[in-house]
Each structure stands twice: as C-alpha cells, then as structure tokens.
Amino acid sequence: MYPPKIGYVIPDNLSEAINFLKTHDDAKALAGGHSLIPMLKLRIIRPSYLVDITKLKELHYLNKEEKEYKLGATITHYEISKAQIPLLSEVASKIGDPQVRNMGTIGGSISQLDPSADYPAALLVLDAKVKIKGPSGERLEEFSSFDKDMFTPDLSQGEIVTEISIPVFPGYKYSYQKLERKAGDFAIVGVAVLIKTNGDEVEDFRVGVTGVNNKAYRSQIAEDMIKGKKINDEIIDKVAQEVANESNPTSDIRGSAEYKRKATKVMTKRAILDALKR
Ligand code: FAD
Q: Which domains does the chain have, with CATH numbers?
C-alpha cells in the first residue's frame, strides 16, 4: 500500500527539529524509517509531516570514554555491531537483516519500543541512560523508566532522544541469545546476560529478557539466587526456571505461550553457558 500524502522536513539543527515538532503536534521524527514507513504504508499512523533527523550531525557519534560509551541517537544497528561494545554489539548484530541494520537506529528502536525488539533486554542489564531534548530543555532518564510500556516511551510531543549512554562493566562476561522463527525476524525470546565470576563463584549476575512480556524485564529473584554461589548445572537450571516463571507471553504467530515460556528457560541457560565460555 502507498503511504498517505505527507510533508517532509529536513531541519538544519536539533533546535529547529524540536521547534517544528512542538508546533506541529501530529508531526513525527524520521530516523531509519524501518518502523515508521511500514506503519505509514499500513496507514496505522497518519502524521502531517516527517521531520528527518538523520542528517543532524549532533545526533551521530559513538564515543568510548573512561567509564561509559556514549551513542548518538542516529547511530545505526550496523555501526553498533562493528563498535565492539560488550553485549550491545552482539545484540545489534542479531537485529533483522543487513538492510534493517544499515538503516535502523538505536534512537528509533527505543522510541518505537516494540515488545519483541532486541535492545531493551541488554539496555536493562547494562543500566543504560537515555538523554532527551525537548521544548522545555534536556533530561536524563534510566532506560528502565524510559521504557514505560509496549510502544510507550517516556517522550512528549517535541521531545527527541539524543543520546544513549552505557557504563563500562570491566571483567564481566556476556551473551545475547535470540530465538527467531526465521532469519531476520524479531525475537520469539531474547535473553541478555552479564556475569562476573571469581573462580567458579558468581560475584555478580544480571539477566534481561525481551519478547515474552509487554516489555523487557530483569529478574531480581533469579539474579539474587546465583550471586555468591558456585556455578553448577543445578543452580543454572533453577535460575533459568525462575526467569521463565516471570515471563508472561501471549500466543501468536511466533508460538504458543507455553512454548515461549519453555523457550525462555532454554535461552536463559544457553546465555549463561555461552557467557561462561568467553
Ligand atoms: P523510525 O522507523 O524512523 O522511527 C520509529 C519511531 O521512533 C517513530 O515513531 C519515530 O517518530 C520515532 N523516533 C525515531 N527516532 C527518534 C528519536 N531520536 N527521538 C524520538 N523519537 C524518535 N528490530 C529489532 O529489534 N529486532 C529485529 O530483529 C528487527 N527486525 C526487523 C525486520 C524488519 C523487516 C523491519 C522492517 C524492522 C525490524 N526491526 C527489528 C525494527 C528495526 O530495528 C527498526 O529500525 C527500529 O525499530 C526503528 O528504528 P528506526 O531508526 O528505523 O526508526
């Protein structure tokens, strides 16, 4: 289907983009377009204008500082996949297909907040922060509170995500395990794990899950279950079971709720074992 008639605006700078979005309350920011354009074609949304933010240099950077990585909102999945950011680069490399990775951006993905998107599982375990600029200034939010619900980021009209920051986790091992129906698809379930060990004892453990709830979640109970303990098959099984117990999947074309809950357990085990091998 063809999209409806829309205006197309290329702002010269971020302030101009914010101003335009503020004064046209059904206008939408356009990043990679890989969620927005399909929604336009299906006529799920009918904005009056698209404000193209991909040409704004102030949104396109990827810096490693001493204690954190800073990613401008229009950095693409492909660029992240090549940046050797522990965990996040692995997640980016598993998003969609090459075309999606070349066009789609991290700012667009977290502003869309599809419940099966890959980044949220990792951004939760990495304690990511989101910088937002809008008509009333700038604010910094924890990703966990920015992610209010499915398709519901903490954004008001005129606000633009400008940066995602991620602390460095020295000495941690990591893995992202994604189960997909076919290559290039969204996750049936995706599990991100960060683990710090001392010999065979677990010092710290973080687990984030996407695809099997209305939004990505961490399991505090599972994380506490394994901290300070020696790793063995029994504890890994218990942790994975707890992570699955906290899922709340729905049955759809990607599988039944029961299948997805079982898959959550399997993918959690795989993520822990894969991380421990690194
Ligand atoms: P756009 O489509 O341009 O925008 C999406 C929404 O965010 C719009 O509402 C827009 O106004 C808003 N927006 C964009 N940038 C900003 C900003 N900086 N501040 C505020 N609002 C903003 N995703 C996955 O996670 N895993 C997958 O496996 C996967 N597979 C896919 C397969 C296909 C075939 C397609 C088409 C998409 C797939 N996606 C997948 C989604 C893809 O990652 C999208 O690129 C992403 O969700 C949206 O990013 P975008 O840059 O394309 O944003």
A: 7-52 (3.30.43.10), 57-167 (3.30.465.10), 173-276 (3.30.390.50)
